Amino acid sequence: MAKKKLPTENEKVENLQFDTQNGDGQMLTTNQGLRINDNQNSLKAGTRGATLLEDFILREKITHFDHERIPERIVHARGAAAHGIFDLYESLEPYTRARFLNDTSKPTPVFVRFSTVAGSRGSSDLARDARGFAVKFYTDEGNYDLVGNNIPVFFIQDAIKFPDLIHAVKPEPHNEIPQAASAHDTFWDFISLMPESMHMIMWVMSDRAIPRSFRMMEGFGVHTFRLVNAEGVAHFVKFHWKPLLGVHSVAWDEAQKISGKDPDFQRRDLWEAIENGAFPEWELGLQIIPEADEHKFDFDLLDPTKLVPEELVPVQRVGKMTLNRNPDNFFAETEQVAFHPGHIVPGIDFTNDPLLQGRLFSYLDTQLLRLGGPNFHEIPINRPIVSVANNQRDGHMRQTINSDRVSYEPNTIGNGCPFQAKMADGGFTSYQERVDGHKIRERSESFRDHFSQAALFFHSQSEAEQNHIIDALTFELGKVERKNIRSRMVGLLSQVDKQLAVKVADGLGIPVPEPEYPMNRSFPADADPEQYQPVRKKQSLEKSPALSMVNTVKDSIKTRQIAILAAHGVDENDLQSVKKALEAAGATTKIIAPKLGTLKGSAGQEIPVDQSFLTAASVLFDAVYVPGGAKSAQALRADPDAIHFVNEAYRHCKAIAATGEGADLLKASYIGADSKAAGVLVDQPAEAFIRAIANHRFWEREKARKVPA
Ligand code: HDE
Questions:
Q1: Is 130 close to ligand 1, i.e. is its CB under 6 Å away?
Q2: Which is more confidently placed, 516 or 236?
């Protein structure tokens, strides 16, 4: 046999399929710019010899690699981010002198990072958790960071409890289990002793903690802030982000399965939506409250475990944020971005919320460690778009080369520069709040009603949403090993709602106990415990419809993922016409078949398959369609993976539609002959299917028949 000729260097290159749009023709160099000739072999004493210490190329490469990681965020480690713009609808000059909230003519660039709180950087996106919603506005007056969450309240009232809370929720220290989950003893031990967390607990045990997408979450500034106008008149303000796609969540069983099938589910969803040009949008909402109304509410505006019901103070939508560009490099942008509630601009100011006050310390401190020093503002993603001029100098990783000799103020050598800015020139001045009090470590009495808003939230939910909260609590407490913790928690829940406690207790197989005294164990050593026990104030509101996701907008299927199940012999006309209708309405469709490759339609048309049952899963889709075609339907109904797909979609209350023989698959599944179930459509026009998908879920299906999928 003739010896095969080895390819020459150029042929080697030509045989590979290169992505010719990429690359800039550069040659490989060291960090000193030296061109590298051999990136395959280290320098050795002979071909089989030991590696030489002299190999500066090897050492530089490995040293850099060894230092590639920086400390991950102690909280909010897992995240994804995008660039975008903020457009103001109308000037807010009567309330604030912040220029980006006055000038409607110019969009403000933003960078937004979404995150989970408890898990490590590599944890699953679908953990039951609050989501971070941090927005950096690059304004003409410097960077303004609105570092919020997708839940409008928080677990604790005072920053001094934050390390305790986070230690309790993080994996247990002896074995680092469980990852990104609050269902364990230390978390519930702490919570069961802290009744102030009860309102937040209602939210994190609700479906808000398992969002369908970052793009379908509300955002909240949480604390009460201040807007201050040019005359120095202030108003209290609560910040909201309202997603234009509505607020939607997945089911808990689904969340757990997604965590296995695609732990990057939400990160991928954000990335793909932006790549496909379906830019996520939120409106900025403000609840504006005159200073004179500070004490008008049933709760204290400074208490971060309370929200201001929208029915009492409407949310005014004042502008729109659009995310339109993915980061170029995850590390350089998403990982290195440094948010800080203390990054504010003239016209916005803080209040004395004790949680906010503590945050004002923490975020700068954390960046010093995480980003390695005081010059993190020089990292490109953190740089303001306006120039920075001050007398700060040097330090680790300094980028700026200050060419002047003056680094002090006042000076004459530098012509007095940089000057202090007058207010008229945009100089920042703090709101002159009158403060008069004793220096004291004590919680205000106005912070002691821990149950009323927890009850308001619970009572504002639909029946299905309430059931989900009960199930989540039963799940979480069921994972707690110590019986006394379970019981103490049920005692606290009984203070929120009796039926809630009865149902959770039933699932745990325990009676509802009287709450232990003292209910609140978070009080100073010398205090009278009685002074710290929860009280109940009469409430002006029994329900707040705005708190239920049932009342969100449900008018669009834009960016929804629809699975079309098919096999050889599928009715291609039916498949193509429904696919076209769904895509025209803004959805994405994927043809899923027993194998990858192409399908042959009943009229002979070749149809490319997007995913097989092996690579796809129903939990990654919003709805399922089964087209007609006798042979296709026959193959699918004989395929357990196809049956499982439909069963699971049914269990998770998704819209399911079939045409012609496609209905045979539904008949062979758990749906059986019950084609009348809500959200199951047989031989209906595409418009009916589109309306059903827009409805998001048919929760009424959930309890009636539990599908074993
Ligand atoms: Fe944070 N929080 N936090 N937090 N937080 C951090 O800062 C902290 C709180 C929030 O995508 C850390 O850069 C304290 C409330 C978001 O980079 C750290 C307290 C809210 C993000 C920190 C709170 C948040 C963080 C960790 C109680 C909603 C991610 C890494 C006093 C309003 C930002 C970092 C991003 C991140 C401290 C409570 C939101 C350690 C001490 C309340 C969205 O500084």
A1: no
A2: 236
Query: Would you say 379 and 358 are in contact if contact means Cβ atoms under 8 Å apart?
Result: no
Q: Whose CA is nearest to atom 44 of ligand 1?
A: 363
Q: Is 79 in the pocket of ligand 1 (CB under 6 A)?
A: yes
Other beta carbons within 10 angstroms of residue 586's beta carbon come to 15
What span, in angstroms and rounded, lies between the C-alpha atoms of 170 and 151?
Answer: 19
Question: Is the CB of residue 159 below 6 angstroms from any atom belonging to ligand 1?
Answer: yes
Distance 339 CA to ligand 1 centre (A): 8
Q: How far is the CA of 563 from the centre of ligand 1 (A)?
A: 38
**pTM of the full structure:** 0.96
Nearest CA to ligand 1 atom 14: 359
Question: Does residue 113 have its Cβ closer than 6 Å to ligand 1?
Answer: yes
Taking a C-beta distance cutoff of 8 angstroms, is the pair 278, 559 a contact?
yes
Question: What pLDDT, in 10s, does the model give residues 513-522?
Answer: 999 999 999 9
Whether 76 is catalytic: yes
pLDDT per position as a tens digit, 184-228: 999 999 999 999 999 999 999 999 999 999 999 999 999 999 999
Let me know if 11 is exposed, middle or buried by CB neighbors in 10 A (0-12, 13-18, 19+): exposed
CB 599 within 8 A of CB 609: yes
Residue 527 DSSP class = S
CA–CA dist 461, 459 (Å, integer): 5
Cβ density class 435-457: b for 16+ within 10 Å, e for less: eeeeeeeebeebbbbbbbbbbbb
Residue 203 three-state SS: helix
Residue in the structure block whose two tokens are 């202090």: 420
Contact 146, 221 (CB under 8 A): yes
Q: Which listed residue (76, 235, 377, 568) is catalytic? A: 76
Tell me, using a 6 A CB cutoff, whether residue 162 lines ligand 1: yes
Check pocket membership of 356 for ligand 1, CB cut-off 6 A. no
- Please, what is the angle between helix 498-508 and helix 483-496, to 10°? 160
Q: Which two tokens stand for residue 89?
A: 């609808």
Active site residue 67: no
Q: Taking a C-beta distance cutoff of 8 angstroms, is the pair 115, 180 a contact?
A: no
Nearest-CA residue for atom 23 of ligand 1: 359
CA–CA–CA angle 462, 466, 472 (5° rounding)? 145
What single letter denotes the amino acid at residue 136? K
